[in-house]
């Protein structure tokens, strides 16, 4: 009833049925005017209710709004800081240990076909969408969705839940890398021999060919690299039901990692921008050094051929889609937060295209560096390359350390490799930490440092921040922007080069780019991931109990359920006919205009969110559909 009274009462207000008066265009020198709103069509305008007697039917700004001081959001000191920060966020451990293995697993060079298809149909559009949203609204990963479509604000909360999970378990990898780095400062690498206190009778030095002559080896023989990883570093137990005690050496490494992350962001975006000059470039120096060293080793050619040899029969399209979303940090809120520190007129279109190709190129080059070394390792051991190629922690902490022991000055190459891992992980972790920094993250991280913590780590990696969750969020991101920003308004753009070019991609219309590719591609992969679901196993041997899978799916649902729950909550708390309530809460933000038709606030404050039907003093609010 209140809704009808507000819109239908004519004795105290003037109901505008025509278009609003033309507002000033967006000058280049004064980019604070959101020029992508102009001009608004009849379809864009829901209703405008103003006090009788006001010029042009435009209400004056509420008392006190002009004088209200809002905390200004910081900005990057230079464009290079933004580029390096985003590069450090998206180029991480997944480029080094996940992409090369997926490329080998899914048919070598044939894997590049679905990878490139998903890159152009899903990765680049969503990457550009999130970065541009942050830059245009100057908001983080939650409030930006409130500005364009309040009913889909749950997308922001879901991304923050995933960020919390990443913040908890991603830093564990840094603690492992720090442990290996400190262990490298020895005369003989501790994982090179079986003469250590933690080695068992089943340990065989496979690198020493003379020790294998005239010996009958048992079936369950292990290598010193595996025993160092499982017994010295992890202290691995029999299963997740037996977590064991805390590994204090790893706990100290974790504390050091948290301290480093804190000092990288303790002064806000200004300090982070300076840190990335080193943390984002140093891994490239290390990667180039390791690549040059790898391709000069005997057997490197066989490893590279094995890496790129096409095999269509082993191709799995689902892996390409999940790898794109994970490696590009899509649906995690980081890109929106980093883009929000940009200047309003920054050409994020060009930046995003460049960063996307840089990320994929890094993954491809990392594959050459890794598989050249694995080819050398396979030749030295006299085994097929498939037996030494592993994924994830197995590649970084077993296969590559084993190859390092075969090189001259192995301590040097070991230090360089783990320094590269540390800085790759540090860049990503700093941005996770800056979004969700809290004391609970360190508390839950300590669970993965117990002797059975590896099983918990795998649960987080497989379920909590997996491709299933990211694909689900990507679908709703495309729905939200495609519905509100594209279909519900005309394509009105500001001058070329500005951030207002969100809705246009090269050679593609906005509905095609966002609705067809960015929606259909994640949806198809999401359905296939559910159909082809396989329960989690550790090292292809340990089968998790049923309650372990239940815990994993609860972690996955904890993020995905935020979207429908928030939409239901916001609809239930708003009184009125469902059709009108849905129309109201799909508005992209409520704007307050001054009496002369000008925006009273600068650009950072012009999108002012007000609860529906709420009065600000004695002034009615102008409701504009799709304010973004």
UniProtKB/TrEMBL annotation:
Its main location: membrane. The chain crosses the membrane at residues 82-99, 111-129, 168-192, 246-265, 277-300, 320-341, 353-378, 398-423, 463-486, 551-572. Na(+) binds at residues 88, 95, 327, 359, 424, 427-428. It is found in: Membrane. InterPro entries: Na/ntran_symport, SNS_sf. Keywords: Disulfide bond, Membrane, Metal-binding, Sodium, Symport, Transmembrane, Transmembrane helix, Transport. It is a multi-pass membrane protein. GO terms for cellular component: cell projection; plasma membrane. Disulfide bonds join 194-203. GO terms for molecular function: gamma-aminobutyric acid:sodium:chloride symporter activity; metal ion binding. Belongs to the sodium:neurotransmitter symporter (SNF) (TC 2.A.22) family. PANTHER family: SODIUM- AND CHLORIDE-DEPENDENT BETAINE TRANSPORTER, SODIUM/CHLORIDE DEPENDENT TRANSPORTER. This is Transporter. It comes from Strigops habroptila (Kakapo). The gene is SLC6A12.
């Amino acid at each position: 009833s209140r809704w009808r009274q507000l819109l239908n009462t004519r004795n105290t207000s003037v109901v505008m049925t025509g278009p609003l008066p033309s507002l000033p265009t967006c000058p280049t020198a004064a980019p604070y005017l959101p020029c992508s709103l102009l001009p608004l069509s009849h379809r864009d305008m829901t209703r405008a209710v103003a006090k009788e007697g006001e010029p042009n039917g435009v209400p004056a700004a509420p008392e006190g709004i002009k004088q209200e001081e809002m905390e200004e959001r910081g900005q990057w000191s230079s464009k290079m800081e933004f580029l390096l920060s985003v590069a450090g966020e998206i180029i991480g451990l997944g480029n080094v240990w996940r992409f090369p293995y997926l490329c080998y697993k899914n048919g070598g060079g044939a894997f590049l076909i679905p990878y490139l298809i998903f890159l152009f149909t899903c990765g680049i559009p969503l990457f550009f969408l999130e970065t541009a949203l942050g830059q245009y609204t100057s908001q983080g990963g939650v409030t930006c969705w409130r500005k364009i479509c309040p009913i889909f604000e749950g997308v922001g909360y879901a991304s923050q839940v995933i960020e919390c999970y990443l913040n908890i378990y991603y830093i564990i990898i840094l603690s492992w890398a720090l442990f290996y780095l400190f262990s490298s400062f020895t005369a003989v690498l501790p994982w090179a021999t079986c003469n250590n206190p933690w080695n068992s009778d089943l340990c065989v030095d496979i690198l020493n060919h003379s020790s294998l002559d005239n010996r009958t080896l048992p079936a369950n023989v292990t290598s010193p690299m595996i025993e160092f990883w499982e017994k010295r570093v992890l202290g691995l137990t029999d299963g997740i039901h037996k977590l064991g005690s805390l590994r204090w050496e790893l706990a100290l490494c974790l504390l050091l990692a948290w301290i480093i992350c804190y000092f990288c962001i303790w002064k806000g975006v200004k300090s982070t921008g300076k840190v990335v000059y080193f943390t984002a470039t140093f891994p490239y120096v290390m990667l180039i050094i390791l690549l040059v060293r790898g391709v000069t080793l005997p057997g490197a050619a066989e490893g590279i051929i094995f890496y790129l040899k096409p095999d269509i029969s082993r191709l799995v399209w689902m892996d390409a889609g999940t790898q794109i979303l994970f490696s590009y940090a899509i649906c995690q809120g980081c890109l929106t937060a980093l883009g929000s520190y940009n200047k309003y007129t920054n050409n994020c279109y060009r930046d995003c295209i460049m960063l996307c190709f840089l990320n994929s190129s890094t993954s491809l080059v990392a594959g050459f560096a890794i598989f050249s070394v694995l080819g050398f390792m396979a030749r030295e051991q006299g085994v097929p390359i498939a037996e030494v190629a592993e994924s994830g922690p197995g590649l970084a902490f077993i296969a590559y350390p084993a190859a390092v022991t075969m090189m001259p000055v192995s301590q040097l190459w070991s230090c360089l490799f783990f320094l590269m891992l540390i800085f790759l992980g540090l860049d990503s972790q700093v941005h996770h930490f800056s979004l969700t920094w809290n004391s609970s993250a360190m508390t839950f991280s300590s669970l993965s440092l117990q002797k059975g913590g590896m099983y918990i780590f795998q649960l987080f990696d497989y379920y909590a921040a997996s491709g299933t969750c990211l694909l689900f969020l990507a679908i709703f991101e495309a729905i939200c922007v495609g519905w509100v920003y594209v279909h519900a308004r005309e394509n009105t753009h500001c001058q070329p080069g500005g951030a207002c070019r969100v809705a246009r991609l090269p050679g593609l219309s906005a509905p095609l780019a966002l609705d067809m590719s960015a929606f259909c591609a994640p949806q198809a992969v999401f359905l296939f991931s559910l159909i082809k679901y396989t329960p989690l196993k550790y090292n292809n041997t340990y089968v998790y109990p049923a309650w372990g899978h239940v815990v994993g799916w609860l972690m996955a649902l904890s993020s995905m359920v935020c979207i429908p729950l928030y939409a239901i909550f916001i609809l239930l708390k708003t009184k009125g006919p469902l059709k009108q309530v849905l129309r109201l809460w799909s508005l992209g933000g409520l704007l307050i205009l001054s009496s002369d038709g000008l925006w009273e606030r600068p650009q950072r404050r012009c999108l002012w969110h007000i609860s529906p039907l709420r009065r600000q003093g004695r002034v009615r609010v102008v409701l504009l559909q799709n304010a973004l």
